[in-house]
Design a protein that fits this description.
binds arginine, Fumarase C, Chain B, domain 1, two-stranded parallel ribbon, mainly alpha, Fumarase C, Chain A, domain 2, Ribonucleotide Reductase Protein R1, domain 1, 3 domains
Length: 458
């Protein structure tokens, strides 16, 4: 019946049962119970300090809210769909438990600023948790990079052999990506970490509230500056979803590589059994399910970003019920990103690297052809001419089913008279790698010092 509703005053008919279910958010926003209670305690204390409600009431409210927190955590709280959302579930229970004082809690506040507060508090903690998981993954990559400072591999462009690189260098590329993800999230946190409470429904409140005091209690370094924006802004959530999408894109790329590298054609790595499954029909199969699933889960995270962007598109100011749809994409993204990062860190740590097959592949596919061209440039040939000469040498090798290192000096000289015996030192895979001794290059000492840099927090 309408009379059971906290907002039932102006209604004479009960809410349709299905409408009640359709509009309720309690099934998913109950996740916010902790933040809701924390925010309410800070709000009540402020109301008391400002003399807006009696201090005895504040004591009862705080006490009552703490008891509710315990009930929820003990699994003894009965969430009610009729009470729509977490805010009204808690408030109704509080009033049932402590009476009059409980009914004073919502003074000078609206669910519109309350829900914005709860989401910001929740997301703030989750962003910090995600950056911690990112640190674990970065550390796992660094450990593998340290262990593979002498592991040669073919570097690819177009997934065709391009130039030899160190496997450590390849891993450090992902370290760069995940460090950017972390920096992006830390930047996003600045916009999340702003107190919206005090905006009321949309216009502020008639009570002499102290927003700074609430901000202080809840560790917000700043308060929002426009009440309409405070209740209608979900940019901070969109930003998080965009950052999470980029992060998942990175995970999908490394997933794809792990999947390719563990094929029998490549045999560059072996994932430990704990991260793979077998096939119910093919006895030989060991499938890389974890990276496949992370690659697949990238889709839902992108979807969540588009979902919320679309919810927010064209919404008039200020709060609209549409915005209740912000939570599920947000929660799903948080769960997906945390799960993916956690499992990935362990998987990278346990990954076995097949250094022989990697370094064998590093020398195939004429991977040091660019080194020959560079050699000719050092002997005075313009780069374009050098490129042409080496291209012909490669065609010769293809025709005669040879590799570049099999060419004799006489054969080399068919393509350029400038080639001498010193060519043989510069076309080994190791020489090719170590010759790329520029900042950001794959030379061993560069990669080593990059690992030290990152370890030192740079
Ligand atoms: N459950 C609502 C949401 O998640 C809380 C805010 C409702 N405000 C309102 N005026 N109906 O957005």
């Amino acid at each position: 019946m309408s009379k059971d509703k906290l907002w039932g005053g102006r209604f004479t008919q009960p809410t349709d049962k299905f409408v009640e279910e359709f509009t309720a958010s309690i099934d998913f926003d109950k996740r916010l119970y902790h933040q809701d209670i924390r925010g309410s305690i800070a709000h009540a204390r402020m109301l008391g300090k400002q003399g807006i409600i009696p201090l005895e009431d504040v004591e009862q409210i705080v006490h009552g809210l703490r008891a509710i927190l315990e009930q929820i955590e003990a699994g003894e709280f009965d969430f009610s769909i009729a009470l729509e959302d977490i805010h009204m579930n808690i408030e109704a229970r509080l009033s049932a438990a402590i009476g009059e004082a409980g009914k004073r809690l919502h003074t000078g506040r609206s669910r519109n600023d309350q829900v914005a507060l709860d989401i910001r508090l929740y997301l703030r903690d989750e962003i910090i948790a995600i950056t911690t998981y990112l640190d674990l993954l970065i550390d796992a990559l660094l450990v593998q990079a340290e262990d593979n400072l002498d592991t040669l591999m073919p570097g690819f462009t177009h997934l065709q052999t391009a130039q030899p690189i160190l496997f450590a260098h390849h891993l450090m590329a992902y370290v760069e990506m995940f460090k950017r993800d972390k920096a992006r999230l830390e930047d996003c946190l600045k916009r999340v970490n702003v107190l919206p409470l005090g905006a009321g429904a949309l216009a502020g409140t008639t009570f002499p509230i102290d927003r700074e005091y609430v901000a202080e209690q809840l560790d917000f370094p700043a308060i929002t500056r426009n009440s309409l924006d405070s209740v209608s802004d979900r940019d901070f959530a969109l930003e998080f979803l965009a950052d999470a999408s980029i992060l998942m894109m990175h995970l999908s790329r490394i997933s794809e590589e792990l999947i390719i590298w563990s094929t029998s054609a490549f045999q560059f790595i072996e994932l430990s059994d704990g991260f793979c499954t077998g096939s119910s029909i093919m006895p030989q199969k060991k499938n890389p399910d974890v990276p496949e699933l992370v690659r697949g889960k990238t889709g839902r995270v992108y979807g969540n970003l588009i979902a919320l962007l679309t919810v927010m598109k064209s919404l008039p100011l200020a709060y609209n019920k549409d915005m209740q749809e912000d939570k599920e994409p947000l929660f799903d993204t948080i769960d997906t990103v945390k799960g993916s990062l956690k499992i990935f860190a362990d998987m990278i740590r346990e990954m076995r690297v097949n250094t022989e097959s990697m370094s064998r592949a590093a020398g195939q596919g004429f991977s040091t052809a660019t080194d020959v061209a560079d050699y000719l440039v050092r002997k005075g040939l313009p780069f374009r001419d050098a490129h042409e000469a080496v291209g012909k040498a490669v065609a010769y090798c293809v025709e005669n089913q040879m590799d570049i290192i099999d060419l004799s000096l006489a054969e080399w000289q068919l393509f350029s008279g400038k080639i001498d015996t010193d060519i043989f030192e510069c076309i080994t895979v190791e020489a090719s790698v170590n010759a790329r001794n520029v900042p950001g290059g794959t030379a061993r000492e560069r990669v080593w010092s990059e690992i030290q840099n990152v370890r030192a927090g740079n």
